């Protein structure tokens, strides 16, 4: 095993598109640890564009993410809500909906919740 590993989202090992062309998830694996970069286009909403893939009532992935650009709003099943923007670190428990805010794509890098996200 090498002491150094380099991967790039410019050459992802897997790309998963969202319903309706509203974005995509690009995946790389760092020594068995998946890391994903999601691009959510304006108008993207989990309950409309990933729910048909996940087949759950709300997102059941736990996320530990960094917001690179754009804005996203997350609403938990119990009604708690928060907005995240560039430079924010976000921790989200399972059981939420989310959507982009504004007219700029939202880009997130996630170290925890994308292994099975948007995967049929």
UniProtKB/TrEMBL annotation:
List where this protein forms a coiled coil: none
Supply the Gene3D superfamilies for this chain: Jelly Rolls
Membrane-crossing ranges are none
In terms of domain of life, where is this protein from? Bacteria
Question: Domain (S)-ureidoglycine aminohydrolase cupin spans what residues?
Answer: 62-97
Query: What protein is this chain from?
Result: Cupin domain-containing protein
